[in-house]
Amino acid sequence: MPDLTGTERGCVDRLPIMVSGKDVTKLLAIPKLKSGTAAVMSDACLAEIRSWGLEDSRHIGAMCFDTTASNTGCKGGVCFKLEAELRKDLLNLACRHHVSEIVLEKVFSLHDSARSPKLELFSHFRDFWPQIHQAKYRLAMDDKDAA
Q1: 3-state SS track over the chain
Q2: Rounded to two decimals, what is the model's pTM?
């Protein structure tokens, strides 16, 4: 993103660091990063954890992250480094959108035809679509949303 706080023009990587719990959701910081490596990101997270006095093992029980290798790498990812520095296992809450993308990518990669823009599954759905009573479906979804 554009560097709006520095004297130099250009772009900079930033990492939002938040905590949440029973009665609180707080944005701790959005520090600038020199790079997007796991070491730089984990150092930034640890610096904020320490500056807020949260390094005590009872304060942090889980972490939420996207599923990039820099976060999830089993030897050098941010998650691994944070657990090592905090000396405890944390509940890993991978972003559900990223996890869904991984699952769908694996399902569609099982078939060579999945690489085709004319995927058979979607062709069947397109052909069946006129037979679906769409107004009834929308009404059912509206009732569900209202509940």
Answers
A1: CECCCCCCCCECEECCEEEECCCCEEEEECCEECCCCHHHHHHHHHHHHHHCCCCCCCCCCEEEECCCHHHHCCCCCHHHHHHHHHCCCCEEEECHHHHHHHHHHHHHHCCHHHHCCCCHHHHHHHHHHHHCCHHHHHHHHHHHHHC
A2: 0.61
